[in-house]
Each structure stands twice: as structure tokens, then as C-alpha cells.
TrEMBL record, chain A:
Gene3D superfamilies: 1.20.1260.10. NCBIfam families: PA_CoA_Oxy3. This is Phenylacetate-CoA oxygenase subunit PaaC. GO terms for biological process: phenylacetate catabolic process. GO terms for cellular component: cytosol. The gene is paaC. InterPro entries: Aromatic_CoA_ox/epox (IPR052703), Ferritin-like (IPR012347), Ferritin-like_SF (IPR009078), PaaA_PaaC (IPR007814), PaaC (IPR011882). It comes from Pacificispira spongiicola.
UniProtKB/TrEMBL annotation, chain B:
NCBIfam families: PA_CoA_Oxy4 (TIGR02159). Signal peptide: none annotated. Coiled coil: none annotated. This is Phenylacetate-CoA oxygenase subunit PaaJ. Residues 129-175 form the PaaD zinc beta ribbon domain. Residues 15-79 form the MIP18 family-like domain. Pfam families: FeS_assembly_P, Zn_ribbon_PaaD.
């Protein structure tokens, strides 16, 4: 997708900073979208197979818009495809949560609800970005992720308040993924500059609303809020689990095998 | 009215003429609707040199029809002899089902797809709604109000799946966003 009348305003920020920040945003959507695609043809029921593919499509669409914008801000002629297909593991800035394996349906729904709640708060704040194009992308994205949260949230409650087996599985899924929560709200020097320029929120500021939504739904689902003794970190700096390499190997195969291939 | 030769008309179309051509472009996924019914065409401009610019907004970020819509616009204009066409993707303000025309809603219903109920900008449609009550979606086949949601998602990004508990027919609902 091209935005032919794209204008990059003179931001009170270094272009490289803005590109880096956009990659952090886009990479989360891209990797989670790619993960969810693995469910296509394997969903527990047809409706959920379709639902997960729909969510994946939205996420990949969001990543495309963000990558296109990043390429234009950078000004070196990189397209969305270059950014998605020609970077190796250490260049990816997504958080650990989105690269975790799908596991069973409960694992996927716990992971999804955690990131959906995060995305609703994040993109809600980004609608006020001083970067007009990012604000426009955020307004569009917000409608979609709000709908995703409704879907994953209903499943968390249904599984938690369902049978003994579904309750056990969704609780285990939240327990397993809780070590990835802290990373969502970490901030570093780049965040400080982004926040100062009014481009994006301080990640820490998203935490209270996320906590309160999580508590409300976990409680309705009769689930216990987990604790994590050894939280993971580093994804936004390019430090990843081994899972990411496999995702990229799959996703980037065509472009690596046939460099310059176009649709 | 000044006399304009056919050649000149071809070379310098009026904006109204372009809108009329766009009226003939069907939505690739819901062919009963035109792209104007869908509300995705946001602007048409014809420059002094005859170059045409069309602003199109995507329905969903990942909607695969976006590229097909742009291609269909180019095709239709090319058929009419207009080959200098630029299509701008307009993201703000974000597309909403509130932009589907009344005529479009009627066509959807006749086609067997329940049109969006209420307005996206209306009460309870904001981001605060997590488990808000679903709207009553009338069955497009028999008109019954006794329907139930089967899934939040359907065959395309813009639709959810429902069924009627009276006539027992399944149907799709155009999600209100």
C-alpha cells in the first residue's frame, strides 16, 4: 500500500528515533499476526479458525501501514516488504510475548487478551500523537483492536468459568505468559525522547488501565492473577528467544530464496 | 452551456463525470454494493491538466479488497479513456460503517446480509464497551428479531456470523465500526 501524498512534518525528534519507535510498534503487530496465521486450517472449530485469521489479517494490515510510514520517515527508499522480509533476528524490536508459540487454544487466547488490552490502551494514546500519520493509523487500528479484545476477553471468561479442564488450561496459560508482562510497560531513553516529543505515551502510563481491565476479566473468569518472579525483557532492543528465528525463517523464505521477488 | 467537443470531454472530465463512473465500480467482496455505497471514496479532483486524483480510504487495515478496489477504479477510468489517475490512500478520518449509504444498507439487506445496526458513533460504541450487549440484528431473510450471534468474525473482515432462530437460516451481519 502506498500513501502517495505522504508528508513528513519536521518533528522535534531525530528521524532515526522515530523509525526505531515505529519498528517497535510494527514488529509487535507483524509477529503476532504471523503467529496467528499458524492457526489457519487448525482452529478448534471453523468459526474460531476464521476469527483468528481475521485478527491476523488486521494485525498484518496495521504492520504494513506502520512499516510504510517508517520507510517514508527514514527516507532511504525502504518499502514495507523490505522492512518485513530483509531484517534478521537482532533487527526485530517486538516484545517477547508476541513471539511465544501458540500452544493450545487457551495459550493463544491468554496471550491475545494480554496484548489486546495493551493495544487498546497504546493505540488509544497514539491517536493523540504529534506525528499525524501515526495518529491516523492509530485511530484506524484502535477500532480493530477494541474488537479483538472483545473476542479474546469473552473466550478468557468462557474458558475460565467453563469446565474444570478449560479452567485449568486457561489458568496455566496466564501463569506461563505472565513473565512477559513487565516488558510491555518498560521504558528506556528512546521512550523518554518519544514521550517528550508527544509522539507516543510513556509505556508505564498504560499500566493502570491494563491492570484494571485484567483484574476485572480474570475475576469474572474465576481466575487467579499470576505473579512473575523472573520477568523477561530485551525484545525491544533486539534480544529475542529462539522462537523468533523460526518465525522469520518461515516468513522470509520466499524473499531470501528469490531476492527482489515482487507480488 | 458552452459547447465542449467529445475529445475535450475525454481529455478534461468534470469531477461529476468521474463520480458517475465510480458509481459503476462494484465492491469486490460484496458486489451488490458500489464503492460509493460503501463510502470508501473520499475525494475526487481533476487538475487543470486533466490529471485525476482520487482519495480512497480502506475499510479495515488488512482488508485484501483495498488493492482490488484501487485496481477496479483504475480499470473503470481507463475504459473511459482516463489514464492519468493517482489514487491516494486516506487514513484519517478512519472509515466507519456510518458512511454506508441508505441505499447501500437496503441493497445489503436484499442480498441477504444484515446491515450495521445503529451508528458507530452512537451510544455504547466507544472504546469503553468490552462486553456491551450485542444489538438486535433483524434477520435479512424473514425479518424476525429472534436472531443470535454465532461468531464475532465472518468470511470477510467486515462481517460477523449470525443465525435466525425463527427461519433457522444463517446470515452475515455487517459489523458496526
Amino acid at each position: 500500500m502506498t500513501t502517495e501524498t505522504q508528508q513528513i512534518d519536521a518533528q522535534q525528534i531525530d528521524r532515526a528515533d522515530l523509525v526505531e519507535y515505529l519498528l517497535r510498534l510494527g514488529d509487535n503487530s507483524m509477529i503476532l499476526g504471523q503467529r496467528l496465521c499458524e492457526w489457519c486450517g487448525h482452529g478448534p472449530v471453523l468459526e474460531e479458525d476464521i476469527a483468528l485469521s481475521n485478527v491476523a489479517l488486521d494485525l498484518i494490515g496495521q504492520a504494513r501501514l506502520i512499516y510504510t510510514h517508517a520507510g517514508e520517515v527514514e527516507g532511504k527508499g525502504q518499502t514495507e516488504d523490505d522492512i518485513a522480509f530483509l531484517r534478521d533476528v537482532f533487527d526485530w524490536k517486538n516484545v517477547h510475548l508476541v513471539e511465544q508459540p501458540n500452544g493450545d487454544f487457551a495459550d493463544t487466547m491468554a496471550r491475545q487478551f494480554m496484548i489486546d488490552c495493551y493495544n487498546v490502551e497504546l493505540f488509544s494514546a497514539l491517536t493523540k500523537s504529534t506525528d499525524d500519520q501515526l495518529a491516523a493509523i492509530a485511530a484506524k487500528t484502535l477500532k480493530e483492536v477494541t474488537y479483538h479484545r472483545r473476542h479474546s476477553g469473552e473466550w478468557v471468561i468462557r474458558l475460565g468459568d467453563g469446565t474444570d479442564e478449560s479452567h485449568r488450561r486457561i489458568q496455566a496459560a496466564f501463569d506461563r505468559h505472565w513473565i512477559f508482562v513487565e516488558e510491555l510497560f518498560e521504558s528506556d531513553d528512546l521512550d523518554a525522547r518519544i514521550t517528550a516529543a508527544g509522539i507516543g505515551p510513556d509505556p508505564k502510563s498504560l499500566r493502570p488501565a491494563w491492570d484494571s481491565m485484567m483484574d476485572r476479566v480474570l475475576s469474572e473468569a474465576t481466575l487467579t492473577r499470576p505473579t512473575a518472579d523472573f520477568p523477561r525483557s530485551g525484545g525491544r532492543k533486539g534480544e529475542h528467544s529462539e522462537y523468533l528465528g523460526y518465525i522469520l525463517a518461515d516468513m522470509q523464505f520466499m524473499q531470501r530464496a528469490y531476492p527482489g521477488m515482487d507480488w | 452551456m458552452p459547447v465542449v467537443s467529445l475529445d475535450q470531454q475525454r481529455k478534461f472530465p468534470t469531477e461529476a463525470a468521474i463520480w458517475r463512473l465510480l458509481e459503476e465500480v462494484p465492491d469486490p467482496e460484496v458486489p451488490v454494493l458500489t464503492i460509493l455505497d460503501l463510502g470508501v471514496v473520499r475525494s475526487v479532483a481533476v487538475a487543470e491538466n486533466g490529471a485525476i486524483r482520487i482519495g480512497v480510504t480502506p475499510t479495515y487495515s488488512g482488508c485484501p479488497a483495498t488493492a482490488a478496489i484501487n485496481m477496479a477504479i483504475r480499470d473503470r477510468l481507463l475504459q473511459a479513456g482516463h489514464d492519468t489517475v493517482t489514487i491516494d490512500t486516506i487514513l484519517a478520518p478512519a472509515w466507519t460503517t456510518d458512511w454506508i449509504s441508505e441505499d447501500g444498507k437496503r441493497k445489503l439487506r436484499d442480498y441477504g446480509i444484515a446491515p450495521p445496526v445503529g451508528t458507530a458513533a452512537g451510544e455504547g460504541a466507544g472504546r469503553g464497551t468490552l462486553f456491551g450487549a450485542d444489538p438486535d440484528v433483524p434477520c435479512p431473510h424473514c425479518g424476525s428479531a429472534h436472531t443470535e450471534k454465532v461468531s464475532e468474525f465472518g468470511s470477510t473482515a467486515c462481517k460477523a456470523q449470525y443465525r435466525c432462530t425463527d427461519c433457522l437460516e444463517p446470515f452475515e451481519y455487517f459489523k458496526c465500526i
